[in-house]
Amino acid sequence: MTNSFDHPKILRSNLGRMRQLGASHHIVEHWKAERLTAIGSAPLSIWFVIQMLRLADADHKTVVQWAGKPVNTVLLLSLMILTFHHMQMGLQVITSDYSRGKNKTILDLIIKGGTFFLGLLSVISILKLALAPAKK
């Protein structure tokens, strides 16, 4: 008869067991990354809403001047990058839960490509707005 102390696995915590699982380690890191992008984008989203409320009645020239300030440009770029990365990870979790095989691979490619393209388009738009001279 075996004693429970003969098996060190029994003494491990659930987290310890989870860390030992190969694919599960990736899941834990993915979960942490999702939380970090959410935490990072929350204050940026609040900042963005406040700024848009302040600029609600502004003309084009004022908005371009606002976007041309380095602090605003960096914060806008950070918000877009974090938001699209968070969106990609969230959609990836959904597809891993509800699709299998070839469909999952195709959906993953569409999600990664689509979020990259939309994120790149957003970054280019912000840079174009920030670097454009304000019209008189």
TrEMBL record:
Highest taxon, organism lineage: Bacteria
Recorded GO MF terms: heme binding; metal ion binding
Family annotation (Pfam families): Sdh_cyt
Any one of the GO BP annotations: tricarboxylic acid cycle
Alphabetized UniProt keyword annotations: Electron transport, Heme, Iron, Membrane, Metal-binding, Transmembrane, Transmembrane helix, Transport, Tricarboxylic acid cycle
Subcellular location: Membrane
The protein's annotated pathway: Carbohydrate metabolism; tricarboxylic acid cycle
GO cellular component, one term: membrane
Cofactor: heme
Topology in the lipid bilayer: Multi-pass membrane protein
Database matches in SUPFAM superfamilies: Fumarate reductase respiratory complex transmembrane subunits (SSF81343)
Residue stretches spanning the membrane: 73-94, 106-131
Function: Membrane-anchoring subunit of succinate dehydrogenase (SDH).
Subunit annotation: Part of an enzyme complex containing four subunits: a flavoprotein, an iron-sulfur protein, plus two membrane-anchoring proteins, SdhC and SdhD.
Protein name according to UniProt: Succinate dehydrogenase hydrophobic membrane anchor subunit
Organism encoding this protein: Commensalibacter papalotli
